[in-house]
Amino acid sequence: MAEGKIKVGIIGPGNIGTDLMYKVMKSKHLQMDFMTGIVESEGLARAREFGFKTSTDGVQAVADDPEVQIVFDATMASAHLINAPILKAAGKTVIDMTPAAVGPYVVPCVNLEKLGDVDNYNMVTCGGQATIPIVNAINEVADVEYAEIVASISSKSAGPGTRANIDEFTQTTKKGLETVGGADKARAVIILNPAEPPVMMCNTIYTIVKNPDEKAIKEAVEKRLAEIQQYVPGYQLRVPPLVDGNKVTVIIQVEGAGDFLPKYSGNLDIINSAAISVAEKLAEKMLSK
User: Fold this and answer.
1) Domains of the chain (ranges plus CATH)?
2) Which of 54, 88, 191, 273 sits most deeply, having the most CB atoms within 10 A of its CB?
3) C-alpha to C-alpha distance for 228 and 133, rounded to whole angstroms
């Protein structure tokens, strides 16, 4: 292990896995070490060019590596259900990028500090990372009865994994809005926008609240916005809270950092940036022991 850094492995060398690799390379406490997939690919070739270990043996390759302590699973929900027990048996700390939700949902600025010792962290969904913090902020001051979010993303930024997991996206995001966001009931919708040039990720958040205190709601959202921007600088209010009776509407836009993915892929960037934020905190704890 490099001094002051925790070695990281990534399962899944696609767009999400490759962008994670670039983000890990910039990290203060994480050291990129291993990229693994199940077939030879551009992602594996790119990792080799940087000098990292690679394999086509999938989850087993990284599970068998004693130096890797944190593993990002950037595959699919169905694959993670198989990978999770293998990684658990190998004693790895796992950050699940899929909607499989084997472990508890984590949204860094909302509940990471409350989770305690966990060996499998689920990053909910891209829409969840973008909207749950706002719903939670509104809930803290206004008590959200119902939340509905519509995540609109560029069709070009929705790869095969995203498209295969549409049902899981809506179900997992809904549950996250309730269990982490605090809404009594919730609904999630995703739209793939084929517009050219590609559009930025846009998230419309509708809530019905019990205590529509406009000043408190706006202050809570502004405070939460600043917290999210600590790890997602491209996260911004497109429409600040609009309070109409007991209805509150907020619209969020997310521009990606452009590490590997295009800047319009804010949907992929926000979940990756959130995952890196979680891994950084975990690495700090590991290094302090």
Assistant:
1) 6-123+270-288 (3.40.50.720), 126-263 (3.30.360.10)
2) 273
3) 8
CB-CB neighbours of 86 under 10 Å: 16
DSSP, residue by residue, 108-153: HHHHGGGS-S-SEEE---HHHHHHHHHHHHHHHHH-EEEEEEEEEE
Task: Point out the residues that are catalytic.
Answer: 126
pLDDT in tens, 206-238: 999 999 999 999 999 999 999 999 999 999 999
- In 3D space, the residue among 233, 222, 223, 229 whose CA is nearest the CA of residue 257 turns out to be 233
Q: Provide Rg for the chain, Cα atoms.
A: 18
Q: From 163, 154, 156, select the one nearest 253 (Cα to Cα).
A: 154
Instruction: Report how far Cα 48 is from the mean position of its chain's Cα atoms.
Output: 25
Distance CA 258, CA 274 (A): 15
Give the Cα separation of 51 and 33 in Å (integer): 9
Tell me the per-residue pLDDT of 137-178, one tens digit each, with 9 for 90 and over.
999 999 999 999 999 999 999 877 778 878 888 999 999 999
